[in-house]
Amino acid sequence: MPRVAKFQGGRAGATYTCHACGKQTRETGLEESGLDLCRKCLTMAYADNAHSDYGHKFERDGCPICRKIIAGYDAGQYPDHETGD
Ligand SMILES: [Zn+2]
Ligand SMILES: [Zn+2]
User: Looking at the whole model, is its pTM more than 0.90?
Assistant: First the structure.
C-alpha cells in the first residue's frame, strides 16, 4: 500500500498553524487551509474584505486603513484610499 503524504494543503484532518493568530487549526471545509488561516481568521478576513468593499464608510475596530483615514481627518486631509474593484 503506497504511503500518502500527509502534509499537503487542504487535506482534511491535517492540522496546520494559522499564520494570523498562530493557533493550531485544521481545515473545516471553508478552504481556509489554502490561505494558512484558521476558520475564525478567515471569517475575519472576509469581513475585512466586505468592509473595504464598502469603502470604509463605517469604522471598523483595528482596521489600519480606517485609522489612517481618521488620522487624516485629524490632520485636515483625506488620504488617497483606493478600494479597487
Ligand atoms: Zn487564526
Ligand atoms: Zn477600514
Answer: no
Residues with CB under 5 A from ligand 1 (ion): 18, 20-21, 38, 41
Q: Which ligand is nearest to the CA of 47?
A: 2
DSSP β-bridge partners for residue 16: 25
For residue 63, the ligand closest to its alpha carbon is: 2
What separation in Å is there between the alpha carbon of 19 and the centre of ligand 2?
21
Residue 32 φ/ψ region, left for φ over 0, alpha for ψ in the -120 to 50 degree band, beta for the rest: alpha
Give the model confidence (pLDDT) of 73-84 as tens digits: 777 765 555 555
β-pair partners for 25: 16
